[in-house]
Amino acid sequence: MSTDVGMSSCCISGQLHNHATPSGTVQTIGDLSTYVAEPSSKDHSKTLIFLVDIFGYEFPNTRLLADEYAKAGFYVLVPDILQGDPLPISFLQNVEPPLKDQEQAGLIDKAKNTAVVGATLGTWLPKHREAVTLPIVEKFVDDVKKTTTGKIGTIGFCFGGRYSIIMAHGKVDAAYACHPSLVAIPGDFDPVTKPLSLAVGTKDSLLSDDQNNQIKEILEKKSDVPTKLVKYEDQIHGFALRGDWSSDKDKKAQDDALQQGIDWFNQYLNTLV
């Protein structure tokens, strides 16, 4: 039996990063508006498709992270898989603060957060259910395949993390998922046939340590498929994209998760492999 791991207030928590301005361009690829970050070499042999969280493809953190992968030599595409319907960035702070602030929050604040989450996600999620989102993601991957002779990987965050895992069922050459939400255990992991890396936090309210151990056990049985699951101590949901940079530990976790992805894709999107 599959265990469906849901979505909570953690999904809309975190910090807005405004330390820089995204340097890519917006283009139409297939039929989706897409943020494009190119490496300085203009090499398109290693393409990364970002599958976004509920804040969408215009979220500054997402675009800045795409720029970091481009600096590492990848051709990065961030399609608008939410088709112009992201949740507003204003939810970042009023739903769930960083872990240190959570621990100091009172019952009234926590109850308010829970109510806001229920009201917001209760109407948003049905519009972006699997039957709607998966065909959008699959078509975009197919459209990209028509324009490249190189290898393609997906990297997904939170809401998009699950779709990156599904792309590792054979649709792309390699995948990486950071703190995925709404996953089914074992249903989303049994069909994995392509290299898959995962970054999860030990304080993630959506994936408990027991659930992460279940996932790891499933993946480790795939002796013919490279897999990796890395646990980040004391990190909450969203840490790899929306971490609190006022904390050295949280900033390091986000940096390490970035490096985990770069190393993974350098290995498995290498055209010589």
Automatic annotation (TrEMBL):
Residues 33-269 form the Dienelactone hydrolase domain. SUPFAM superfamilies: alpha/beta-Hydrolases. Pfam families: DLH. InterPro entries: AB_hydrolase_fold, Dienelactn_hydro. This is Dienelactone hydrolase domain-containing protein. It comes from Lithohypha guttulata.
